[in-house]
């Protein structure tokens, strides 16, 4: 299935006649007004209202309903995370920021339940892609699947051109780019790169990197894709993909050398964590070409694995720090060019914890024992529906 909004085909006379004979969405109201009412229902209630009747289910299974929500500013952003549990099984969860709750989701497709080194990206704001990776039995994969948040289903798209795992991926102009990684064989560290165009539902090769790389961090900034990782000799290297010329070149300026994982390009600025628990944030100053301290909460949580930052994401126009214990810290950034080296603790709001119902001693023990925590978040994305 091609993951794009496809314009509705011209209706035949018979289909228009059948539609006129259907019962209204809401009794006593024309469908246009009924849809205007239904699209105001909170996203958390969508699974329930699908069960009301066949027409409501059909409405919420199509793109028209969600495109109206988006145009009207009613679409909601949820955080989706993939994490590895103690038994090494992959699970995923969604965070509803309106009700401030985490929701467990059905099992991921079997081919990814024990896979490692796979990529994760979002296209069109509501399609969550899992691609590549390595299965412990079948080895490296080319497989690509995506989760459609509008219909709550996993679907397939064409496989990548090359098998790869532990590679870099990004989205530019709603196209999915992948580069580098590893594969089995003589030349394990890959130089190859490719791009998926959802409008054409095809993968295409792009220019190869100058050297094979297993990326450890990557960011799209100023229209360029920066990657930093290890080559086949385990040396740190950096490259940048220039979209305008469709070529790779080496990158060695301070922006790249100072880039740490996780990082995020947010509202035209580049941010990166400056400590293990994410209580310090750095910002890249383009004018001086250097990284500077942006904010420090002065409320450091600790250095355990549970409190380690897993991702920086943008949620409802604000910057969020997400940790392995599934706590989320919201940062209200108003003017990053002037709010530097100030007491910014009031700008931070911790508003979600996975185990908030447990006692104080249980939470304390979890923090103390966090260094032995085997669970960790592998990927984190935001979907809008």
From TrEMBL:
<dbReference type="InterPro" id="IPR036047">
    <property type="entry name" value="F-box-like_dom_sf"/>
</dbReference>
<dbReference type="InterPro" id="IPR001810">
    <property type="entry name" value="F-box_dom"/>
</dbReference>
<feature type="region of interest" description="Disordered">
    <location>
        <begin position="1"/>
        <end position="22"/>
    </location>
</feature>
<keyword id="KW-0880">Kelch repeat</keyword>
<dbReference type="Pfam" id="PF00646">
    <property type="entry name" value="F-box"/>
</dbReference>
<dbReference type="Pfam" id="PF01344">
    <property type="entry name" value="Kelch_1"/>
</dbReference>
<protein>
    <recommendedName>
        <fullName>F-box domain-containing protein</fullName>
    </recommendedName>
</protein>
<keyword id="KW-0677">Repeat</keyword>
<dbReference type="InterPro" id="IPR015915">
    <property type="entry name" value="Kelch-typ_b-propeller"/>
</dbReference>
<dbReference type="InterPro" id="IPR006652">
    <property type="entry name" value="Kelch_1"/>
</dbReference>
<feature type="domain" description="F-box">
    <location>
        <begin position="29"/>
        <end position="69"/>
    </location>
</feature>
């Amino acid at each position: 299935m091609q993951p794009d909004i496809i314009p509705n085909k011209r209706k035949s006379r018979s289909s228009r006649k059948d539609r006129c004979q259907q019962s209204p969405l809401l009794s006593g109201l024309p469908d246009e007004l009924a849809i205007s009412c239904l699209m105001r229902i909170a996203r958390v209630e969508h699974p329930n209202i699908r069960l009301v009747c066949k027409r409501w289910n059909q409405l919420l299974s199509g793109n028209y309903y969600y495109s109206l929500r988006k145009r009207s500013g009613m679409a909601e952003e949820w955080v989706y995370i993939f994490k590895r549990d103690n038994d090494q099984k992959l699970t995923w969860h969604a965070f509803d920021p309106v009700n401030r709750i985490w929701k467990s989701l059905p099992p991921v497709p079997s081919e990814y339940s024990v896979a490692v080194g796979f990529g994760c990206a979002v296209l069109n704001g509501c399609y969550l892609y899992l691609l590549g990776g390595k299965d412990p039995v079948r080895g490296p994969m080319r497989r690509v699947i995506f989760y459609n948040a509008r219909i709550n289903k996993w679907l397939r798209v064409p496989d990548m051109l090359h098998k790869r795992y532990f590679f870099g991926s990004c989205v530019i102009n709603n196209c999915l780019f992948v580069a580098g990684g590893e594969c089995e064989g003589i030349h394990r560290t890959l130089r190859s790169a490719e791009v998926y165009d959802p409008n054409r539902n095809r993968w295409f090769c792009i220019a190869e990197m100058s050297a094979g790389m297993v990326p450890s961090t990557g960011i799209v900034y100023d229209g360029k894709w920066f990657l930093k990782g290890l080559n086949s000799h385990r040396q740190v290297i950096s490259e940048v993909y220039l979209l305008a010329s469709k070529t790779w070149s080496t990158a060695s300026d301070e922006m790249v050398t100072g880039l740490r994982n996780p990082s995020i390009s947010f509202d035209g600025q580049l941010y990166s964590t400056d400590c293990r628990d994410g209580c310090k944030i750095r910002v890249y100053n383009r004018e001086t070409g250097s990284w500077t301290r942006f904010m420090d909460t002065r409320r450091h949580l600790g250095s355990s694995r549970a409190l380690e930052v897993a991702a920086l994401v943008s949620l409802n126009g604000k910057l969020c720090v997400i940790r392995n214990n599934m706590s989320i810290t919201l940062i209200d950034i108003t003017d990053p060019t002037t709010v530097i080296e100030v007491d910014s603790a009031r700008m931070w709001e911790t508003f979600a914890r996975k185990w908030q119902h447990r006692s104080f001693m249980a939470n304390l023990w979890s923090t103390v024992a966090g260094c032995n925590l085997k669970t960790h978040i592998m990927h984190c994305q935001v979907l809008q529906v």
